[in-house]
Write a structure and sequence with these properties.
With about 250 residues, the protein is of the alpha/beta class. About 45% of the residues lie in helices and about 15% in strands.
């Protein structure tokens, strides 16, 4: 995929899936705007690359901060072609629903759903001016099937999938596509922090009996947000090692 001249905004790009996607798109010519609170980590990861990068300390659960950061991207490069919402948290896991904290549930929704709404809300007017754009929300197979013990995470990712269907249809005639990606468990620091029992529960559902790789995510994302992928919108791509067959 050739992304020369394109500007990609990626949340959570200081580590994990977001970082892998940012490096993939940057290596193929995109200018990368990183929205993440972990500025030091982002600077370290991009220091030894030739990628043109703008690192913006952003609390993505604050609509004001998101709006300000997107305005800086537009002011710096004059456009936004791609948005990838990859920041996410699992919240407390291995809990039944009656044990879930309301505060934790709200926190997970703020990061996983509201932040994705805020970023899309900020970039869509820019993309409409351009008559072009690619938005990708990173969801989860948990949002389609529901993982026991992960109410907050599963429900928030289901909401992301619902938003994708709405937005994809709303902007289908504008040159803007809005899609989602629903991975099964991917080997990231986020997964490494989960209880072993929770990870086993998830990988046992995967026919390949393994976690997905960051490189596998980045390769698929590069296609989804490319110009070549022009007739698919409001769709949720699966990356599940055979778990999802629908």
């Amino acid at each position: 995929m050739n992304f020369n001249g394109q500007v990609a905004v990626i949340t959570g790009a200081a580590s994990g899936i977001g970082l892998s996607i940012a490096k993939k798109l940057g290596a193929n010519g995109a200018k990368i705007a990183v929205l993440d609170l972990n500025v030091d980590a982002a600077k370290k990861h991009f220091a030894d690359t030739s990628i043109e990068v703008l690192i913006l300390a952003t609390d993505i659960t604050s609509q004001e901060q998101v709006d300000n950061s997107i305005a800086k991207v537009k002011g710096n490069w004059g456009r936004v072609d791609i948005l990838v919402n990859s920041a996410g948290i699992t919240g407390m896991t291995n809990l039944k629903s009656h044990e879930v904290s309301t505060d934790n549930l709200q926190k997970v929704f703020d990061v996983n759903f509201m932040a994705s709404f805020y970023t899309a809300h900020a970039v869509l007017p820019i993309m409409l001016e351009q008559n072009y754009g690619r938005i990708l929300h990173i969801a989860s197979v948990a949002g389609k099937e529901g993982n026991a013990g992960m109410l907050a995470y599963s429900a928030s990712k289901a909401a992301v999938i619902g938003m994708t269907k709405v937005q994809g249809k709303e902007y289908a005639e504008t040159g803007i596509t809005v899609n989602a990606l629903a991975p099964a468990v991917i080997r990231t620091p986020l997964v490494d922090a989960m209880p072993d029992a929770q990870v086993k529960y998830m990988t046992d559902k995967i026919p390949m009996k393994r976690c997905g790789l960051l490189s596998e995510v980045a390769d698929l994302v590069a296609f989804i947000v490319s110009k070549e992928n022009s007739f698919t919108t409001a769709f949720t791509y699966d990356l599940t090692g055979g778990r999802a067959t629908y």
